[in-house]
TrEMBL record:
Any GO BP annotation: tyrosine biosynthetic process
Pathway(s) per entry: Amino-acid biosynthesis
Protein name, as recorded: Putative prephenate dehydrogenase
Oxidoreductase recorded as keyword: yes
Statement: the UniProt record of this protein carries the keyword Oxidoreductase: yes
Domain Prephenate/arogenate dehydrogenase: start-end pairs: 2-286
A Pfam family: PDH_N
InterPro entries recorded: 6-PGluconate_DH-like_C_sf, NAD(P)-bd_dom_sf, PDH_C, PDH_N, Preph/Arog_dehydrog, Prephen_DH
Keywords: Oxidoreductase
Species: Apilactobacillus kunkeei
GO MF term list: NAD+ binding; prephenate dehydrogenase (NAD+) activity; prephenate dehydrogenase (NADP+) activity
Length: 286
């Protein structure tokens, strides 16, 4: 029987637990979380088998999944490096940046422990184990950033997650962080800025009681994301994110100039180009 230990059973960790329970019904899933409600929910619904502490769960596990925020994952890797783990254990994670996590994982690799980074490209502004689901991750990209695993060990991770209908993509840590700074980290930062700008502008004209249209609400949904998680994520990939902020500011300046110069045709073409790009994203997701 394979023993899986998941540290962090919030939205993503609990979704991973659900997938593993479906993929490997006989697996023994141990869990740890600082929020007892997350543990209780998963025990009640028989998604995990046992609640345990970090040390005991790690030492019993054949596979360890670190599913806490990025900085906590780095701290957990250091803790693991000081524990007597099974020599065949596979350690993986779900962190949103990879260069710093793989650098930390050198502590494990130097001791002969296998580390295979992971990152599911899906989520929600909701939190907690009760809001996790298999469907939330289905048909989304799941990055695998292999540090020192062999093909069989990579396939072990894939097999445990096979019921999730995930789109596995193997990339380097550098490439991963460049990609997610573009498609995830920048959009979150822009959404926070947009929400704060609109809110401040409405205060200036004493119109904070206006009912917002669906366009604005849809565009700013991720402004409701977890502040602790996302402040951690955005600062963990700062160099790539700053490059993307520069690129965004250049694009915004181009659009601003069409307004200043009163060139509706140029502005229209930019909107057409944006339409085409957005439609292309939807086609790629099918």
């Amino acid at each position: 029987m394979t023993t899986i230990f998941i540290n962090g059973l919030g939205l993503i960790g609990s979704s991973i637990a659900r997938i593993i329970r479906k993929s490997a019904p006989d697996a023994r899933i141990l869990g740890n979380d600082i929020n007892k409600a997350n543990i209780d929910f998963l025990l009640e619904h028989k998604i995990i088998n046992e609640d345990t502490n970090f040390e005991d769960g790690s030492q019993q596990a054949d596979v360890i999944i670190l599913a806490s925020p990025v900085n906590s994952i780095i701290e957990d890797i250091e803790k693991l490096s000081n524990l007597e783990l099974k020599s065949s254990v596979i350690v993986t994670d779900v962190g949103s940046s990879k260069v710093n996590i793989l650098q930390a994982a050198n502590q494990l690799v130097d001791k002969g422990i296998t580390f295979i980074g992971g990152h599911p490209m899906a989520g929600s502004h909701l939190t907690g184990s009760e809001n996790g689901s298999i469907e939330m991750l289905a048909n989304h990209t799941y990055f695998l950033v292999n540090h020192n695993g062999n093909n069989q060990q990579v396939n072990t991770i894939k097999d445990l997650l096979k019921s999730g209908q995930l789109r596995f993509k193997e990339v380097s840590a550098d490439k991963h962080d460049q990609i997610v700074s573009t498609i995830s980290h920048l959009p979150h930062l822009i959404t926070y800025a947009l929400t704060l700008t609109v809110n401040d502008s409405l205060k200036d004209v004493y119109a904070t009681d206006i009912s917002m249209g669906n366009g604005l609400l849809d565009s700013t949904r991720i402004a409701k994301s977890n502040p602790d998680v996302w402040s951690d994520i955005l600062t963990s990939n700062s160099e790539n994110l700053l490059d993307q902020i520069d690129a965004f500011e250049k694009q915004l300046a181009v659009l601003k100039k069409t307004i200043i110069d009163n060139k509706p045709d140029e502005l229209r073409q930019s909107i057409v180009n944006a339409n085409d790009a957005r439609n292309g994203w939807e086609n790629n997701a099918k």
